[in-house]
Every structure is written in C-alpha cells, then in structure tokens.
C-alpha cells in the first residue's frame, strides 16, 4: 500500500457537524478567466468546462475565480458575480457538475475595491484601468487616491459604504449556499478591498476602520462575522490572505497569524489559503518554486492547536513537491493554479505518480483506458 498524504482525505471543520471531507488535499486555486462574452457576471459554458475539467481531473476541491459580491467589486467587467438570480442559477449548474465528479466546490467571494475596473493580463490589452466608455466604473477603497501607481483614484468608503460592502458579502454568501457551494473562501489577498484595509500601505484611515491592527482588521472581521452568520453552520468558511506585502512597514506574517487566530476563535474561520503580495508596487518578491510555502509553514506552526486548515500555494507544480510539503508538515493542503491550467487532470496524474493504485485513482470511469 502506497502512503500519500496528498491523497489522504482531509476535513475542513465547521462550527457544527462533521465538517467538509475532501477526497484529497489538492485544491484548485481561484483563477479569473476574463473571457465571458457578456458583462453581466454570469458564469458561462466556458466556466463549466474549465472548472468541470478540474473536478473530472481528480482534485479534492475546486475554487471558483474571484466572484464579485457586487458589480463594482469585480476586477473587470468580464468577471463573474454572485449578486443576482441569473448568476446564482449559473453557479448552481456549475456546482452540480463539480459534485457529480466527486469534487467539493468552493466559491471565492471577492471585492476588488480600488483595484476594480481594471483589465489585467489580457492579450493585446495593456494592464490598466477600463475607461467608462468600455464599461469601466469608479472605485472605492480605504482612503481617497490610487491603490497602486497607474490606477485611477478610488474614493474612500464612508462607514455607511463599509456597511453596504459587508452586507453585500453576506448576501452573496446566502446565494452561495442556495447554489450549493460547500465552502466559501473570502478574498483577503492580492491587494483587493479586504487587503487594502488590512495593509498599512493603503489604509491610512484615522477612524475605527484604520490606524492600529485592531482598526485595519475590522473590515475583515466584520465580513467574516456577517458571512458566518448567514452561512450554514455545517459548512466551512475560509479566507485567502496575502501573508506579507514583501515591503518594510507593510502587512506581515505575524499580523497574519494574529488575524487568522482571531478569525478562527471569534468567527469560526477554519481554512486559510496562504498567498502574498498585491500592494506596494515594486515589492521584491522572491518568485521561484514553492516560494510562498515558508509563509504557509510559519502560519501552520503558529496556528497549531486551532482547527484551521492551512493550504500552501504558489508554484507548487510537481506531485513529489506537493507530497513533500504536506509530509513535512509545512501545510495541510496545497492549492494548484497554473499547473492545473496546463493539465486539468493534474491531480489524477499526481496520484498515479505517487503510486496510488490504479483502481483508486480519482478519475471518471469513462477514462479507464487513459493509461495512468
Ligand atoms: C490567478 N490568481 C488569482 N488569485 C485569486 O485569489 N483570485 C483570482 O481570481 C485569481 N485569478 C488568477 C487568474 C490566473 C489566470 C492566474 C494564473 C492566477 C492567482 C492564483 O490563484 C495563484 O495564487 C497563483 O497563480 C500562484 O499559484 P500557481 O499558479 O503558481 O499554482
């Protein structure tokens, strides 16, 4: 019998009940597609085949791309959302298919804040702000001004505006439940709205939503509380964070550990996906194989004794690499992004490489002759 930690099931605990059991510890990372042929935030056939192939490809859980909790919270006009009935129905169709292939379904609920209304990484299109004539909109953030050089100025949210954002997260969480999602991942990373409030680089507010760590973490804590209050107690709530801004004086790993511990103790958060960066243009990020794994390892160490499941992400591409990260206790699970784009069946391939018996490979029965 081959022992593989990667292919040992894992439970994401929930406040009530047994929690969510994943068939293995390979999770698909959220990846925006920006390809929909309409700008109504409705997931299309593309999303069904894109996410569906990962579920057929053996992953334990598939995370949707950043999904706007309100229209102005989308990164680009082509992002999906979860704030109206038509979007909800399309999400339900997605989730039903993911489940049919044995994968759990997580939705990444997101608000891009001052990094909204931008078109990143589109072929033939420079990074930057979407003009109003092309469907762009004005953005909001912690304070007035551009979040990064080159972006147009965001408007600092009033307290009433913050309350509306929190309510939008809760409303999207209700829709996520109705659509059948098993888990929510709050997008607290990559310089989007929640991170804009967490980081001293972008949050220079002087009211109770800024200043010290208590103030800067308030939005994240209010969002988690509001979502947890409407999200069924038997379903896990997670968050993706940038564990460091990679900038002196920015958000850092000790602050991340304190935040996650508090979210776990006070708001029932049981899963953290550990990414980094997204603010402070010009940050020196040591990109390379597994470059964010040390951040996950430090959080795993500091969160020992809590129910929080830690997933590592970032250039985790090889089966043996993923297995080693888990077997050495640096994280409890791995999130896979680009390697899954190249091979949607990454998880099945990894299982075969790690010596899982052919009869136990996570693959659709109709692929029995594929030769893994
Ligand atoms: C991403 N990433 C990302 N992250 C996120 O939190 N929400 C998102 O919607 C997206 N969108 C997205 C689209 C595409 C095409 C890529 C390649 C990446 C980041 C992604 O989830 C992951 O953290 C990084 O890609 C690093 O992991 P890999 O790709 O090295 O495994």
TrEMBL record:
InterPro entries named in the record: Aldolase_TIM (IPR013785), OxRdtase_FMN_N (IPR001155), YqjM-like (IPR044152)
Pfam families, per database record: Oxidored_FMN
Protein keywords: Flavoprotein, FMN, NADP, Oxidoreductase
Names of required cofactors: FMN
Domain NADH:flavin oxidoreductase/NADH oxidase N-terminal residues, every copy: 6-351
Molecular function GO terms recorded: FMN binding; NADP binding; NADPH dehydrogenase activity
This protein's record includes keyword Oxidoreductase: yes
Name of the featured protein: Oxidoreductase
């Amino acid at each position: 019998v081959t022992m593989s930690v990667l292919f040992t099931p894992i439970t994401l605990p929930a406040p009530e009940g047994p929690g969510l059991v994943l068939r293995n510890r390979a999770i698909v990372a959220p990846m925006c597609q920006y390809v929909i042929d309409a700008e109504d935030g409705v997931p299309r056939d593309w999303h069904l085949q894109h996410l569906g192939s990962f579920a057929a490809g053996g992953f334990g859980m598939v995370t949707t791309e950043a999904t706007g909790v309100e229209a102005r919270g989308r990164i680009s006009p082509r992002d999906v959302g979860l704030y109206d009935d038509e979007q909800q129905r399309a999400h339900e169709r997605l989730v039903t298919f993911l489940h049919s292939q044995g994968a759990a379904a997580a939705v990444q609920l997101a608000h891009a804040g001052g990094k909204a209304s931008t078109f990143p990484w589109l072929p033939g299109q420079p990074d930057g702000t979407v003009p109003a004539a092309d469907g762009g909109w004005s953005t909001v953030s912690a304070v007035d001004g551009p979040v990064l050089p080159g972006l147009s100025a965001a408007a600092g949210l009033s307290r009433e505006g913050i309350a509306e954002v929190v309510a939008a997260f809760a409303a999207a969480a209700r829709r996520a439940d109705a659509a059948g999602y098993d888990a929510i991942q709050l997008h607290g990373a990559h310089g989007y709205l929640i991170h804009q409030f967490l980081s001293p680089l972008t949050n220079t507010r002087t009211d109770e939503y800024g200043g010290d760590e208590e103030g800067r973490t308030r939005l994240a804590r209010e969002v988690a509380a509001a979502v947890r209050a409407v999200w069924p107690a038997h379903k896990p709530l997670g968050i993706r964070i940038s564990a460091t801004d990679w900038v002196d004086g920015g958000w850092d790993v000790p602050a991340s550990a304190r935040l996650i511990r508090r979210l776990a103790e006070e708001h029932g958060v049981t899963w953290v996906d550990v990414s980094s960066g997204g603010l402070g243009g010009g940050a020196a990020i040591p990109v390379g194989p597994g470059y964010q794994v040390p951040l996950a390892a430090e959080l795993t160490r500091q969160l020992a004794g809590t129910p929080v499941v830690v997933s590592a992400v970032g250039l985790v591409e090889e089966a043996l690499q993923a297995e080693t990260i888990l077997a050495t206790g640096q994280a409890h699970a791995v999130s896979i992004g680009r390697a899954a784009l190249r091979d949607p069946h990454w998880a099945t391939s990894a299982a075969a490489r790690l010596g899982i018996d052919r009869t136990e490979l996570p693959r659709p029965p109709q692929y029995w002759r594929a030769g893994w």
